[in-house]
User: What shape does this take?
Amino acid sequence: MRIDKFLKNSRIIKRRQVAKDACLNERVKLNGDLAKPGSLVEVGDIIDISFGKSNLKVRVLEIIDGAKKNNAEAMYEVIDE
Assistant: This one.
């Protein structure tokens, strides 16, 4: 799954366009490398996201296409905030 879609489906970022913009503005890293909006996410990957003054680091646990609100949190675990 594309990283911009994963961030939206997992509810880490609310809209896909915002996730895409975050990638284009070099605020998202996938396994330590800068991520493009089309970078593919796999189970076990580490995603670092910079939100202004705070950072969020998560590990991908599951990839669910079209995840519902109650399934979204099962897609990742927070490693470091």
